[in-house]
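Exercise: predict the fold of this chain.
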Amino acid sequence: MALTGAGVPNILKIPELKRRILVVFGFLVVYRVGVHIPTPGINADALSEFFARHQDTIFGIFDMFSGGALERMSVFALGIMPYISASIILQLLTVVIPHLEQLKKEGEQGQRQITRYTRYGTVGLAFIQGFGISIGLESMAAPGSLPVVVAPGWGFRLMTAITLTAGTAFIMWIGEQISERGIGNGISLIIFAGIVARMPQAIGNSFRMLSTGEMGIFFAGLLILMMVAVIAFINFMEQGQRRIPVQYAKRVVGRRMYGGQSTHLPLKINTAGVIPPIFASSLIMFPATIASFFQDVPLMQSVANAMRPGSVIYELIYVGFIVFFCYFYTAITFNPADVADNMKKYGGYIPGIRPGKRTADYIDKVLTRITLGGAIYVSAVCVLPSVLMTKFNVPFYFGGTALLIVVGVAMDTVNQIESHLITRNYEGFLTAGRGKK
């Protein structure tokens, strides 16, 4: 069942699905309202002038992920990035700490404990980042030496750290509520909402440049065609699979014969989805942002300049992180040995490959090769904004992690809604069948 124009009215006919969608919209509205609540002790005019001079730096990209919260230095200025960073740390520690590895194998109960640790880590990281930002804000000034902080000191630092930590904790709670009571993907939907909220401003800037002659109509037409082509390419790659044929042997159980059918094992080209660019952005933003605050220190200023989006060092580190997390997250979520064991248990085998370890090695080999292609695809899309903005003077941030998240989350959300519709229709068929008996 496709979610077409004819399928949209069906959503309103299912009370549970309609309620879930309204819950999602309600929480996202709360999130967007919080973006406009300022942190106490900030000179809004001076901060706005500062960001006007730093839109092409790491501040502009971080502000995009926070949906404009950083530019306003609102209570949600840190966004959901501390939670993502804590998740990265927990997943890395799961590989090296036996206790966490055991918790991961305990199923739902173990996952709840890991989630609890992630929450603690989020609060700790948010407090550290909030305290660092408060110190950086005290050293920031707009042109004309207008200070950003009205009353600097330890009182401002502690108040800012606590406020930003509370804001991040609240966003984390909103994400969990959307996942539990809505249609899933709470954290991704929050990032999605922040990115989409910036689109009207980008469209307005484009029309302004057209009206003033800064952008030609021909160039704008080419840009629109390129945007459509990139979105179509992402959609194609996200659905791309390598299908490994699987044959199930015939089995006799009692007087019945089972099996004998042919099927396939689908391996996605981009198994990790949007996780690698999000993780890479989260890791690369934090040190670069802190370095940018200390403009009086030559070493820190050199680090900030080197980590400026568009620089060779930044792009190389960014691509390196993306490739690493593509392989790392794929290794965590997909275990070829477990797949091979399950196939062997139910009499399945890959034609020409021995069951067991040989099958696991073959699946791992195929997965390694297609993951490389997926990592190259994700890296190319993520580097695209820097090329467009530095080489072609595109007036807005198009492509990269933002576009991957928007397209990926939109596709996944549509699939979630379709699953609810299919489940409801299936239950309706069962109910009708029972009524005829």
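Check your answer against the key: Confidence is low (pLDDT under 50) at residues 426-437.
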